[in-house]
Design goal:
With 104 residues, the chain is α+β, with helices and mostly antiparallel strands. It has a single domain, classed as Alpha-Beta Plaits. Helices cover 29% and strands 35% of the residues. The chain contains 3 helices and 4 strands. The protein is flat, with a radius of gyration of 17 Å.
Length: 104
Amino acid sequence: MTDLKILNERENQLLNRKELIIECNYPKKSTPKTDELKNKLSEFLKINSSLISIKKINQIFGNPHCNIEVHLYKDENSFKKYEVINKKKKAEKKEGKPKQEVKK
């Protein structure tokens, strides 16, 4: 499906994580979704997918490759401490509060 190659690797000991830039090639296919990339990265790097945070997917229109900025945390506590998960918060807000209809 996709070919992955590490372009840059940096150890951030203060935040207890590794910061990677990975090149992803996907000939004759659309840009992979974030969830698909997370699963593929966990297989490629041999790390639990819950410790992976994809920060940015850079792609040039029409090219079958992209560069991915990824943070790999060493443990669950560091991940929860330094990462903000906006999608989860948005989903909780939508489920908790129904919209009120405006009468005209």
